Amino acid sequence: MASLQQRLDDFKRSFESGAPPYNAPRQVIETMHRATAELKASGIEDRALKAGDRAPTFALFNQDHMLVALADLLPQGPLVASFFRGHW
Amino acid sequence: MELEALQEIHGEVRALGAQIVVITPELERYTRALHKKLSLTFDILTDLHLKTAEEFRLVFTLPDYLRELYKSFGSTLDRFHDESEYRLPIPARYVIDKTGIIRASEVNADYTIRPEPSETLRQLRLVVNTAAA
Question: Is residue A19 a contact partner of residue A11, using CB atoms and an 8 Å limit?
Fold first, then answer.
């Protein structure tokens, strides 16, 4: 199985080639690159919480509308928490 | 792709006594459909209006020119997130130990780069082994 990053890179290459099925115009690709560069330059990566910080508590609804709280999860063991921008 | 990759390691994560949660600004009606479609065995949590992402300091606002571009693709975040300001979290993955301390973090402002699940597993093993020692 290819690594996640390999799979993402393959997709990116296909998208940025401008070829079907995405047919992405050059201008669109450049706009996306510009936005990513600006976001990097904003310093957001350095401001984000990192190793050594205390995780903020949360209580959020899952896909079945059940409330899931960090305080209930942690006693069971360590937690991998992945932030995901969405499926779109 | 990232959720499928996390699903692939979920068995090993559980075997280590740990859990996975995915945190997203998407509304529950979308997380429910996505969860079902990908047959996920971990929870997707809806972080309404990015309150939790804000506390982890991961939130940015899409510039106007990108907002217009996404709209032209049909991706309207006010629909998916109830988020009229077009804010998003940057991709980030954390390993949090039982005491609530972040032990590893992978954060990247370039959304085309995601942390490798095998690396997350390695970090998790370190946390589990340290706790046992």
Answer: no
Distance (Å) of CA B3 to CA A34, B13, B24, B26? 26, 14, 12, 14
Instruction: Give the SS3 label for residue B15.
Output: helix
- Domains of chain B: which residue ranges? 2-123
Q: Domain count of chain A?
A: 1
Q: Which A residues, 22 through 81, put their C-beta within 8 Å of a C-beta on chain B?
A: 28, 31-32, 35-36, 38-40, 42, 44-45, 47-58, 60-65, 68, 70, 73-81
Residue A27 domain boundaries = 4-47
Q: Could you count the other beta carbons within 10 Å of the beta carbon of residue A46?
A: 10
Q: How far apart are CA B69 and CA B65, in angstroms?
A: 6
Are B94 and B105 within 8 A, CB to CB?
yes
Encoded amino acid at B70, one letter: Y
Tell me the three state secondary structure of residue B23: strand
Tens of pLDDT along B24-53?
999 999 999 999 999 999 999 999 999 999
Is B114 in Cβ contact with A4 (below 8 Å)? yes
Contact B2/A51, CB-based, under 8 Å? Answer: no
Question: Rounded CA gap, A24 and A42, in Å?
Answer: 27
**Each residue's pLDDT tens digit, A10-46:** 877 777 777 777 777 787 788 888 888 999 999 999 9
Please tell us whether the domain made up of B2-123 is placed in CATH 3.40.30.10. Answer: yes
Provide the ipTM.
0.90
Chain B environment of A12 (Cβ under 8 Å): 112
